Write a sequence for this structure.
């Protein structure tokens, strides 16, 4: 078994993402609605940061790892947004590989 066996193969739009997020965060007090809000905000952040359309993002399974890191940061900081002055280096490196809007 390699480290890559543990990477989810879903896209960031997969209906299974709330379960993946819940397992990643491991907070029993977090409601399904809260998880879905984190998920939607993280997806919007990824779309805005990269400038990629859904069709393209669905084909990039490594975006799931970026999404999980974004959601974990939002949950740790108890906010539904990403602080623009700080971006997780894992997230930045993954998103920068695919970024098309360099404005």
């Amino acid at each position: 078994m390699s480290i890559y066996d543990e990477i989810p193969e879903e896209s960031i739009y997969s209906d299974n993402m709330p379960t993946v997020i819940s397992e990643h965060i491991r907070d029993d007090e977090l409601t399904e609605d809260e998880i879905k809000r984190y998920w939607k905000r993280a997806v919007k952040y990824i779309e805005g940061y990269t400038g990629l359309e859904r069709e393209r993002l669905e084909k990039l399974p490594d975006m799931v790892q970026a999404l999980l890191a974004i959601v974990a940061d939002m949950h740790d900081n108890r906010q539904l947004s990403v602080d623009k002055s700080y971006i997780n280096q894992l997230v930045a490196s993954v998103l920068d590989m695919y970024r098309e809007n360099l404005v």
